[in-house]
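Notes from hallway chat w/ T.B., transcribed later so I don't forget. T.B. wanted the structure written out for a chain they're using in a teaching module, and asked if we could keep both sequence and structure tokens in one place. Agreed to drop them here.
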Amino acid sequence: MRRLATALLCLAALVGCAVPGTAPSSSEDTGWGTFQADVTAVRLSDDPRSLVLTVALLGDAEGCSRDPRVEYFVEESNRIYANVVQDSRLSGVVGACPTHTPGEVTLTAPGPIDGRLVVLNQEPWKRDGAGYRRCDPTFGCDPMPADHCARAWIDVAVRGMDVSRHSVGSPEGCDGTWLVMTVPFDPMPCGVEARPGCTPSVNVRRYFLRWSGEQGWATIAGSTEAGCGKVLTVEPAFPRKLCADLPRP
């Protein structure tokens, strides 16, 4: 795990960083550094141990890019982790490499990949038919349920609110287009184990949301009052049947 963390930290910093097992650059390579090569597509190969990665290489001048490759590889918890990099001498020169050109890198594992999740430059990719698709940074690798009122969509909406990471939404009414739920600001204000002298007081607020397609649920109003509060003044179309009889949160 320490080696994995070291390699990912080096990659995130986008600087030439020695990874255990790699040889230092020779004197003729002065000025060249190692930088991330963004992966834009992943497809299967004829070899069950390999994947073909399409990468964006710095282009338009000699010295912009050379030797795209997988520089770090580890298998852990049924996943494959790899860093995809390129060398460049001009990446730090403003305007020297204004475009990107596509290139290919082959990732090869010791044994069959068998559809395992592949994490490339800290971004997960999941098998999808004849290729792989990049996992969504918000929704993850699994497709979201068609039911907009499903718990997965509720959790995504709460994560986008200015509340504690421990907060959980409690739906009070949902018809797929409109949602009303209560969310505590912090369900553990005194910590997991109450601190001495701390008096727990959980502030709970009611939220009214509208379905907004690919973005999921969007908050249109909040309230600490009974019933529909002021949501009808903000959005008259909000159905009263979802909130008219609700008690104060």
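Follow-up for T.B.: The chain has two domains: 2-21+30-134, 151-242. Might be a good example for the class.
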